[in-house]
Amino acid sequence: MKYKINNICCIGAGYVGGPTMSVIADKCPHITINVVDLNEERIKNWNNPDIEKLPIYEPYLGEIVGRCRNKNLYFSNLIKEKIQEADMIFISVNTPTKKKGLGAGKASDLKWVEACARQVAKFSTGYTIVVEKSTLPVRTAEVIKSILDDSQKSSKNSAPSKTFNVLSNPEFLAEGSAIKDLLNPDRVLIGGDNNDAIKALCEIYKNWVPEEKILTTNIWSSELAKLTSNAFLAQRISSINSISAICEATGANVKEVSRAIGSDSRIGSKFLNTGPGFGGSCFKKDILNLVYLSEFFGLHEVAAFWESVVNLNSWHQNRISKLITKKLFGTLSNKKIVILGFAFKANTNDTRESAAIQICQNLLEEDAYLVIHDSKVSSKQIEVDLGRKVLLDDLKNNDNSNIFKGGNWDFAQDLSCIFNNADAVVILTEWDIYKSINWEDVSRVMRCPAWIFDTRSILNPIDIKKSDLNFWQIGNGLG
Ligand code: UDX
Ligand code: ADP
User: Which atom of ligand 1 lies closest to the CA of 276?
Assistant: First the structure.
């Protein structure tokens, strides 16, 4: 093998970089891995001796970090030094949708990727393999390559010269099951045009992934495959969410429909759970990248096709908040609504694009008073997402008050007492603890007529029937 990798630097210690590097470190004890980030607080938290306090919550991540940290896995802000030492550099920085300028609202903002490429161009030494790990628009590798190539040109007269190869190695992990997905991936995709560089990255994965699961392609196919994979998954969710609305209108049950269609092996059973709308950092962003790409190439019908998946998702989220308002007699003023779950799915503390944000904002607009609980999301994060919080001392001191100041929200650490005098409970994330709530007890402390809105379809309607609660369940026309 031409290139042997002894030292990896990963730029970006987020939801992708952190878990991915932890698993590589665990499976490749012979490789030194440095995860670097600009954000000092994030790095401090990655180095926290208490593994419960890592900056991201992901099942089993703490154990792996505990095993490898300061043995062959290091977290620091030493970007320059660690780039200098590396044989291989992973770029795992954030690429949110552009907020302004050309392509605003659709194209990804590549300023962080570009900054990384410039850092690599400046500080790297000798031959370096640069791996794009973040989800990126098609042909981003070209941007990285041209920045690196320019640096090669400018250092032509001064030895030692730097050389690079760029690979695309998109991450397919899903948050909440990241470690499982990394340990046992359906496939690993490596795109590139240099066989020796591709082989060097394959060798790393071969430490735990069977060779037949490692697919190699050209770099553009790899980038496009990642976007397409997420677009197909998101499309399934918009499809089933659209059917949930038809089920409610006709008396059908979406769970039965999902089971029936999912039994067709050509369709398959996964990703057919209806919910409050897909969230997360990837789906919307990746589809909008496809839309932007299609428009750029004049493929307007293709753009409209994919955009409709995102439009359906927004419509669906708004449909849920409208429905809640309607059931509560068309006004939420002076009403307390308990929100169970704020993360975009269970088993993560990530709230990016969570359906909870839009739904809560809509309810606050209607003047509701929200009490929000989540197993892992912090009050601070909800404050960032909802953009306002007024602490109401009178409410805090008087749990039995019926006078709620509308348009505000409060955070609940745990479930004790939060249902007191509430008019409604809305389940937005499928955390396990919500499945074992005793609804008969809850119904005794809520204000009548009290409602449960189950947007994740995690409750058994028979359990609710034992209480005095009114019940709405997504896609359940008989509810
Ligand atoms: C996704 C892809 O699954 C992963 O392969 C890619 O690397 C990154 O994007 P992630 O966003 O972490 O992963 O989570 P995912 O499990 O895909 O869920 C995305 C959203 O869809 C969540 O809001 C989830 O609640 C929702 N969802 C998922 C449904 O509403 N129904 C389903 O059946 C599945
Ligand atoms: P993802 O879900 O893609 O991992 P995150 O936002 O969780 O996204 O993580 C991306 C990380 O990349 C952040 O912690 C951010 O501080 C870091 N980052 C962004 N740009 C740079 C850069 N130029 N150098 C180092 N770290 C960076």
Answer: 30
Domain positions in the chain: 7-217, 313-473
Ligand 1: centre distance to CA 109 (Å): 22
Is 7-217 a domain of CATH 3.40.1190.20?
A: no
Q: Please, what are the averages of pLDDT over each run of 10 residues along the chain (479 residues)?
A: 93 97 98 98 96 93 97 98 98 91 88 94 95 86 88 60 93 96 98 97 98 97 96 98 97 97 98 98 95 95 98 98 97 96 97 98 96 96 82 50 72 94 98 96 95 97 91 87
Do residues 355 and 317 make contact, with C-beta atoms less than 8 angstroms apart?
Answer: yes
Distance, CA 148 to ligand 1 centroid (Å)? Answer: 34
- Architecture of domain 313-473 in this structure: 3-Layer(aba) Sandwich (3.40)
- Asked if residue 276 lies in contact with residue 317, where contact means CB atoms within 8 angstroms, the answer is yes
Angle at 258 between CA 254 and CA 259, to 5 degrees: 120
Residue 318: is it exposed, middle or buried by C-beta count within 10 angstroms (0-12/13-18/19+)? middle
Query: Crossing angle for the helix pair 355-365 and 300-327, nearest 10 degrees?
Result: 50
Catalytic (active site) residue 282: yes
Q: Catalytic: 52?
A: no
How many residues are there in the chain?
Answer: 479
Residue found under tokens 């009290």: 450
- State pLDDT tens for residues 20-44: 999 999 999 999 999 999 999 999 9
